[in-house]
Structure formats: structure tokens, C-alpha cells
Design a protein that fits this description.
heterodimer, A: 182 residues, alpha+beta, six-stranded mixed sheet, globular, B: 110 residues, alpha/beta, 5 helices
């Protein structure tokens, strides 16, 4: 995948298909350590042992289940190409924690891509799921959760054009601000 | 062969480097894994890739490639275009596949 935001969308969709109703997406850039960490934690079904043992193998995973597909093997490749690694911890019935690590400035690290649209898509397409989005740069972080939005908005849908436009701008401004405060 | 000689026959769009098209190219290279391209792409080659972010400009500068051809119609990031202008990198784009572009360059004698 050309952009990391596609990976984030893909992994989040795995969580949603695994019946998660709470998703925590955390992006952590540390320029001093030259590290980029993307974690996605869910409270979904977890990954059964027979799939988990071969989860990074595209043949085994795509054969045994349609739920997993090529997403994880490709993300694993990306991490390894960028001197990082992919950790997945899972417990059936409890959920899954995925952590993708790579060197921030590695030449093969794909760009983040359109993260704002990715997060917005997840927020507005799955209103029954609580999603926490946290973006951290060198220890300064920005958080937006669907829970926060729902508390303010009450019965108004996140999918209302004015609301989704506001979320888009809010995400964009805050992500830019994190990178500007050098 | 000059970069200018391949623009029309391959129907390439010139994104940056319009004044630099007289540069000679004498080889071709196809690759998307930038760490490999960095070490392997020959000087003064036409480098064909699907990558379209700012790192391709860094690689082109380092390997001193003649031009970059971004294939498959991928749109190129704005910061990559800006950097290409500053670094005087010739950035071209095509809707065709990397293979198809490479094949045509080969047929033209590159």
C-alpha cells in the first residue's frame, strides 16, 4: 500500500469486522528517537490461535479466512523494510492490540497519506462504534474521540454535512499544529 | 537521447523541469523500493516508478538520475513537486504502466 493511512483503514476495518465497539488508534511520532509507532487496539473477538500463528503469512491467512487477507502481511513488510517490526497481541473474546513500528525517516517509509479522510471515514461510517484517535508528536498529543463528539452533539449524526466538515477541519488543523510546534 | 525526445512519443506530461529537457539520458531503470533504487539506478537514466512522494526527489538527486517518470497516472504530492523545482529534477508522468513505458523506451533504442 502506497500510504500508511490505507493500512490504518484496513486494520481498523479488521477490528470492526471482528465486532469491536471500541477502537483506539494512536499515532506516535518521535523525532528524537526517529521512531514512528502506529497502534490500533480493539475490544473485538480476538484472533483464533490457528489464524494467529500464521498471521504474517499471506497464503495461510488468506486461505483460512477472508477476514484477514493481505493487509497484515503487507503492513509487516512495510515495517520490516523500514527497520521496524509489527507486534500483534490478541486474546479471543477480549480484543487485539496491534503495534506497527518503523523508522520515521527511513527512505522506504510510505507517507502518511490522507489521514484526515481516513479518520473521518471511520468516525462517520460507524456511529455505533466508539473510536478514539490520538496523534502524538514528540510528546505533545491531540485527541479526538467519537464519545466526546457524541456528548456535545447528542442526537445529531456525525454524518451531517456541517458536522463532518467541522470534524475534517478540526483534525486537519490539529495535525498541522502538532507538526508546526517544533 | 535527450529527455525531450521521449516526451511526445510516450505522451508524457512534464510536471517540472521544462527548461532541463535537453539533458542526455542513456539508460533506464524501473523500481519502487527506494533503498534499492538509491543503490542501483544508473546515472543519467530515466527512472520509472509508481512512488509519488517527496522521497523520490531525494533519491533522484542522490543517484543523479536524468528524469523520473511516475507511472500509472498516480498524482504526485505537492511537496514533491515543489522540491523537484528547487532541486531541478525533471519530473514526468504517464498514465501507462511501468512495463509499458520501459518497453517503449527500449523500442526507441534506450
Amino acid at each position: 500500500m502506497k500510504e500508511l493511512s490505507y493500512h490504518i483503514l484496513d486494520i481498523a476495518n479488521n477490528s470492526i469486522r471482528a465486532n469491536a465497539n471500541h477502537l483506539i488508534i494512536n499515532i506516535d511520532e518521535n523525532r528524537e528517537k526517529n521512531a514512528l509507532k502506529i497502534s490500533i487496539n480493539d475490544n473485538g473477538n480476538g484472533i483464533p490461535a490457528h489464524i494467529y500463528k500464521d498471521i504474517k503469512n499471506p497464503f495461510t491467512t488468506s486461505r483460512t479466512t477472508r477476514k484477514v487477507g493481505l493487509g497484515i502481511p503487507l503492513l509487516n513488510d512495510t515495517c520490516l523494510n523500514c527497520n521496524g517490526h509489527l507486534n500483534i497481541d490478541t486474546e479471543v473474546g477480549k480484543g487485539t492490540q496491534l503495534e506497527a513500528l518503523m523508522e520515521l525517516t527511513h527512505i522506504d517509509r510510505p507517507p502518511m497519506g490522507n489521514l484526515v479522510s481516513t479518520i473521518l471515514t471511520l468516525f462517520v461510517s460507524h456511529e455505533d462504534i466508539n473510536i478514539d484517535f490520538i496523534y502524538e508528536v514528540d510528546g505533545t498529543s491531540f485527541t479526538l474521540t467519537t464519545q466526546m463528539l457524541k456528548e456535545i452533539l447528542g442526537d445529531i449524526s456525525l454524518n451531517t454535512p456541517e458536522i463532518s466538515q467541522w470534524i475534517r477541519e478540526y483534525l486537519k488543523d490539529n495535525i498541522v499544529a502538532l507538526h508546526d510546534s517544533e | 537521447m535527450k529527455i525531450n525526445d521521449i516526451i511526445e512519443p510516450l505522451n508524457l506530461t512534464v510536471i517540472t523541469g521544462e527548461t532541463l529537457l535537453e539533458r542526455e539520458i542513456n539508460d533506464g531503470y524501473v523500481g519502487d523500493l527506494l533503498s534499492v533504487v538509491m543503490g542501483k539506478a544508473p546515472e543519467n537514466c530515466a527512472w520509472i516508478t509508481v512512488q509519488s512522494h517527496i522521497n523520490i526527489i531525494a533519491v533522484a538527486t542522490l543517484a543523479d538520475v536524468g528524469c523520473i517518470i511516475v507511472s500509472e497516472g498516480f498524482s504526485i504530492d505537492d511537496d514533491a513537486v515543489e522540491k523537484a523545482k528547487i532541486e531541478e529534477v525533471v519530473l514526468l508522468s504517464s498514465r501507462e504502466s511501468s512495463y509499458s513505458i520501459a518497453k517503449k523506451l527500449g523500442q526507441m533504442g534506450l
